[in-house]
């Protein structure tokens, strides 16, 4: 569909593109609603086994469209927490809870909430020209959309604090070096890399990938004992799936497995 979000479904995966290139894909209410609908549709579609999120034009996402938050229109006491509660937090929770891999292909600047929505995805690939900017300090705000949690967890308090307090851009290659994202690639190769990865997931054991996603997310807050127990329970579930049976049988038969991605047929 055309509009502020474009959705393409092909080869067992979906490509969801933020489509306000003249505004660096900064968020409006309409774009939030369209993106949420696209992600919910992809999540519910059993034929869609992976998602790519990217941006049109020269940037991934500049965060909130500040034209929609003009203090002259909002008055002296705007409730920005309501915006977060209504739009940004549900979006981050939706991405994190999707039962399939979500790949973010960062094609240019990812600033403010745009950076943190990218980091909420399961695998982040960025063009070498891309930059991640915690721009909130420049306008007197606090990093949101999970940014303070993700940054401190992924790169440590010292680096997280410096990025948030200075709002200095972090180049994609440095972000990869620090472990903030998976890798940086040549600009021209970005979507080929993302599509190849999504195609790989489209024929993978999606149910097991979803369980793995759950386990890794829980590891950030679990003790070792709790994580060992969680792994036991998730492995119990994975072992009951048709994909596990198919994977073992294919190994014994010396052939490529044909995974369905479902828990059971």
List the helices and strands and how they pair.
Elements: E1 5-10, E2 13-18, H1 29-44, E3 51-55, E4 59-61, H2 71-74, H3 80-97, E5 102-106, E6 109-111, H4 113-120, E7 123-127, E8 131-133, H5 147-155, H6 157-166, E9 170-171, H7 172-178, E10 183-185, H8 190-202, H9 206-219, H10 224-239, H11 242-253
Parallel strand pairs: 2-3, 3-5, 4-6, 5-7, 6-8, 7-10
Antiparallel strand pairs: 1-2, 8-9
If you average the pLDDT, what whole number results? 94
The ordered string of helix (H) and strand (E) elements is: EEHEEHHEEHEEHHEHEHHHH
Distance from first to last alpha carbon: 31 Å
Structural class: alpha/beta
Cα-based radius of gyration, to the nearest Å = 19 Å
Q: Strand arrangement, largest sheet?
A: 1-2-3-5-7-10
| Low-pLDDT ranges | none
Number of strands: 10
Number of helices: 11
Strand content: 15-25%
Q: Helix coverage percent of residues?
A: 40-55%
Tell me, briefly, the overall form. Answer: globular
* Biggest sheet record: 6 strands, mixed
